[in-house]
Write a structure and sequence with these properties.
201 residues, mainly alpha, Rna Polymerase Sigma Factor, Chain: A, Arc Repressor Mutant, subunit A
Amino acid sequence: MTPSGEPAAPASAADDAALVARMAVRDPAALREAIARHAGPLHRIAWRMTGEPQEAEDIVQEAMLRLWDHAPRLASRHPAGTSAGAGLRLSGWLKRVVTNLAIDRLRLARRVSGEDVPERADDTPLADAQIEADERDGATRALVMALPERQRAAIVLTYYEELPNVEAAAAMDMNIKAFESLLHRARAGLRQAFVTLGDAQ
């Protein structure tokens, strides 16, 4: 928000290049500005992938530290005020970092626990309509959480974050054809899980 209470205009690529240039010379105010601009959407992605608010916070903090560490390299590749600088999209770069960090943490947690993610939430029939609705929402989240990590990322970025396929593919560092194939498998897995859940109720 601006001081007058109006929503802030989205940052342009030129703004991103200038912000990174400031971080490259170790301006802490630039890092605070980057956090203010990007932390909310990044936290949402991380939370939807991990299901843990604290884990999501840790992921966003790590992503911001990586931005700080990589700022000199990014600034040299995308100098502010040049056509290369105009090509920098900090939002996309950060979404890619957060998605990869979330996938890495999910894989590590699975290896440490030695357990698979539960296939579905408790599906005991409940009488109250609102509780049933909440349970369906919870079951949907559980089914998404039960997908393999990269399929889960594809669903979160496409359906929850509403990114176009090309942007979601970039966030996952994939070409568009490979991403669409992954998304197709994720949708098929969810459809089958919903059928199985329906049959069990």
